[in-house]
């Protein structure tokens, strides 16, 4: 793990670039639909609802992880944050799969709501998600490459607070976007 420890910033950058390339490639239609097998329409239609549940679960695991570390329960904190990362990966894989095959979902509500509520919420959600990605990778790489006894002397506690906060708000705003797209209109 010493090799990882010495390369945490570089690995964070590499993982971030790969992740954001996949996301923007899918959103912008640069990934050909033909590279993926097509699931039945019912499966594709279920993905936004599954992702909303994944996001809600991630919010719970983040909050529980924060509580665990505040109470000195390091092992529980680690399990919860790794679970959150697994939920994030699940969300991202499902999102990328669906958006590659279907493209972005159009907002069907009133234009005034779209302009003054939906787009600003979506923009903040996207911005926070983009900023959260390197923060999350950085914190995870620090946690993976240092013994617990040394983590307090790294940027892990400070960066972890930032990553958790960004994740919480991004997941929460993602649920708001979901509600506006699939429940309200």
TrEMBL record:
GO terms for cellular component: membrane. GO terms for molecular function: cytochrome-c oxidase activity. Pfam families: DUF420. The chain crosses the membrane at residues 45-68, 80-97, 117-141, 162-184. InterPro entries: Cyt_c_oxidase_su3_a-hlx (IPR013833), DUF420 (IPR007352). GO terms for biological process: respiratory electron transport chain. Keywords: Membrane, Transmembrane, Transmembrane helix. It comes from the Archaea. This is DUF420 domain-containing protein. It comes from Haloarcula pellucida.
